[in-house]
Design brief:
alpha/beta, Rossmann fold, 45% helix, 6-stranded parallel sheet, binds pyridoxal-5'-phosphate, 9-stranded mixed sheet, 29 helices
């Protein structure tokens, strides 16, 4: 590479090839030196492609590229980006620098059914995927030897639109994998599913230092129903789901073997991936170990993270289906179909019990954890029958989730904290530095940052609402009216999540008149911004979206409630950076962790949440509010009424008055003290560097040391 200072201009082909190179590793997505190059390339296309580097490049005119090739400042930025990435990939990170470096041979195979890496790579449905994406990025930053496995879904999850009546329209676009900077490894595998061998090609996406291998069965060699295995995420009925899970677990292990990736520890991120550990036992059995011994050995080297306290969230299959699809595996294990089905039963031999993926994972993993302290407790209670001991003796621990700060922090906020309290995110340490000094920031400057972030959000929401109105054919005056919705100087409350019904998105509308009175007070106005997708088959969740959409058009809330379609990582980033208050109203204890509430504190936002998931660990009485909640077992109607009343009381008596207790310059010192305390106490703990370091110490290393195989 030429010395940067001397660069004047380069050839067009050379520039294109450097840009393709920069796009070939997702490092660009969490480093400003990466993504901002593509944003500059063609800002409109950058937006139109939902921030896809290769999509933007494809749509940039040859004249524009030729002009940039002669622009020494732009060319230097491209070289600087590549140089920064090379330095990152080559550096000795946390894992290599510490005592952990002696763990030679530790290599983790991480399996998950979805990955939320970037908004332009639509391969996630919600929190599980986002967590997996953040896990890979932190593993890369910290230098943890990890390779990841998943499926490549041609149609992704789905794109959400709302019709004029607020009902959900489900769209399935066809994605071009090449546009994600994916490489074809040219390795194919044959995965036994039922009576057929399904062919999958293995593709690779680089996430910093971490390779993510994605399997694709949409190949001519396969029968039509096998091609559908990688059509979409969580699309199917049980039969398709089971076959997808065999592909992920068994196919994924075969892919690692074919690639020469020698993984020593397996991490099953949710029960979907449990067949991977079984395949590992079968590999040991194939070279001469008795099956039970092989299972024990696989078990010692397997880590399992369970993610849901909602019973319906655990996949269950009929024995007949298991017998049909897993016959070849059972045969190789030397097990009858009944013995095989017993692997997924709490009580082996009980033919009335269905085969449960979580039970299989519990049986095949020595180290099991929930994703918050509370969820660990709930999981111990939930699975005590399986272990046959009292709940407090159940060997399920907890490792609380975290977010990848560089992915979620707004660059403006990062610059603010760097200047105001010495935040240094490039220092790759699990604890992060600087946050604890947040409280010494200048309140007025901090309030200016908040105003910029809020105002940017308001403009973003108006643009989106105008686009939505146009698409629905709502007429010019309706489209124009969207530009006067919302204000950029009022308390802004955000709520964005997957619209699973236990999350109770519409709870705040329980008493619509009381809420309307609260929002409309001219001396202290409040506004609400919503986003969220329900699963295409979840009618209850879709009704929630419809209800909120209709509220956003209700006269009582005119201009103060907005619903934006298609919640994705970008919408999430905009909302969590711009909102003053982040609302979370699940039915306790169904929110295993939740991570969206960890994002506002990176921007001095505050949480207002039911004491569920991660929040009981973080809440200290100053850094946010907790909504008192009725127990889950209460009558649902009475429970929702009680919980919404607690929420109204909090908003009316403390949150709104505190926000509007402002000095002559409009600066609310009491609120700011809380906001800075939120930044000082939450990001330093609830981040994915801490989380991945904890997995390494508590799970990966012990599993590696005792694996004995
Ligand atoms: C952070 C995030 C999530 C996870 O949020 P929860 O708190 O688990 O609801 C889900 N989806 C998107 C797009 C996110 O950004």
């Amino acid at each position: 590479m030429p010395r940067a200072q001397r660069i004047q201009s380069i050839g067009v082909d050379e520039l294109i090839s450097h840009l393709r190179d920069l796009a070939s590793n997702l490092w660009w997505s969490w480093n400003e030196e990466g993504w901002s190059v593509f944003q500059t390339l063609e800002p409109n296309e950058w937006r139109a492609t939902n921030h896809s580097p290769l999509g933007t490049l494809e749509r940039t005119s040859p004249a524009r590229i030729a002009a940039l090739a002669c622009d020494p400042i732009f060319v230097k930025r491209v070289y600087d980006g590549l140089a920064a990435r090379a330095a990152y990939l080559g550096e000795r990170a946390w894992f290599q620098r510490g005592a952990l470096a002696t763990m030679r041979g530790l290599r983790i195979g991480y399996f998950c059914s979805e990955y939320g890496l970037h908004e332009s790579i639509q391969q996630y449905a919600g929190g599980l995927g986002i967590l997996a994406g953040d896990h890979l990025k932190s593993a890369s930053d910290l230098g943890i030897p990890l390779v990841a496995v998943g499926l490549a879904y041609r149609h992704g999850y789905y794109i959400q639109q709302l019709a004029r009546d607020g009902s959900t329209v489900v769209l399935y676009p066809d994605y071009d994998f090449a546009r994600w900077g994916i490489e074809d490894t040219r390795v194919t595998i044959g995965c036994p599913i039922g009576q057929r061998i399904v062919t999958a090609r293995v593709m690779r996406l680089w996430v910093g230092r971490v390779p993510l291998y994605l399997l694709d069965t949409d190949l001519k060699a396969n029968a039509p129903e096998d091609r559908k295995l990688t059509e979409g995420l969580y699309k199917g009925e049980p039969h398709l789901r089971l076959r997808q899970q065999i592909l992920l677990g068994v196919g994924g292990m075969l892919a690692l073997k074919a690639l020469g990736e020698k993984v020593t520890v397996l991490h099953l991120n949710e029960g979907h991936a449990a067949f991977a550990a079984l395949q590992r036992a079968l590999e040991l059995h194939a070279v001469g170990r008795p099956m039970q011994e092989a299972i024990d050995a696989a078990r010692r080297a397997t880590v399992f993270t369970t993610h849901t306290p909602v019973p319906a969230g655990h996949d269950r299959y009929d024995q007949a289906l298991i017998a049909e699809e897993l016959a070849p595996l059972a045969q190789r294990a030397g097990l009858s179909s009944v013995e095989f089905a017993d692997l997924g039963r709490i009580k082996p031999g009980d033919s009335t019990e269905s085969f449960c993926m979580t039970v299989l994972a519990l049986r095949l993993a020595q180290r099991v954890n929930g994703v918050s302290k509370l969820h660990g407790e709930v999981s111990r209670e939930m699975w005590k029958q399986f272990y046959g001991v009292a709940a407090n003796k159940v060997p399920i621990g907890s490792i609380t989730n975290g977010v990848h700060i560089k992915t979620w922090i707004d660059p403006d906020a990062e610059r603010f904290w760097r200047g105001a309290c010495g935040l240094r995110l490039s220092k790759q340490a699990p604890k992060g530095t600087g946050w604890r000094h947040a409280e010494s920031c200048n309140p007025t400057e901090f309030w200016q940052l908040r105003a910029r972030l809020r105002s940017r959000l308001v403009h973003f929401v108006r643009d989106r609402l105008a686009m939505q109105a146009k698409r629905r054919g709502e007429g010019q005056s309706a489209v124009a009216a969207t530009y006067s919705l919302l204000r950029d100087d009022v308390l802004t409350i955000g709520f964005a999540r997957r619209f699973a019904t236990y999350k109770r998105a519409p709870l705040i509308f329980h008493d619509a008149d009381r809420l309307a009175a609260l929002l409309a007070r001219s001396d202290r106005p409040v506004q609400l911004i919503f986003a969220g997708k329900a699963h295409p088959r979840d009618e209850g969740g879709q009704q929630f979206a419809q209800q909120i959409f209709q509220m956003s058009r209700d006269r009582r809330f005119a201009g103060r409630v907005a619903f934006i379609e298609e919640y994705d990582m970008h919408v999430g980033r905009m909302l969590t950076s711009g909102c003053d208050l982040w609302l979370n109203t699940p039915i306790r204890p169904y929110e295993a962790s939740g991570t969206s509430g960890m994002k506002p504190p990176l921007h001095g936002g505050l949480n207002c949440s039911i004491l569920d998931g991660w929040w009981p660990e973080a809440m200290d009485g100053i850094n946010g509010w907790s909504i008192a909640s009725a127990p889950e077992s209460d009558d649902p109607v009475a429970r929702d009424r009680a919980d919404s009343c607690s929420l109204y009381a909090l908003l009316e008596d403390s949150i709104v008055p505190q926000y509007y207790q402002q000095d002559a310059q409009g600066v609310p010192h009491g609120w700011i003290a809380r906001a800075l305390h939120s930044a000082a106490t939450i990001p330093s703990v609830f981040n994915s560097h801490r989380m991945v370091a904890e997995y390494t110490r508590k799970a990966y290393m012990p599993a590696f040391q005792i694996r004995g195989s």
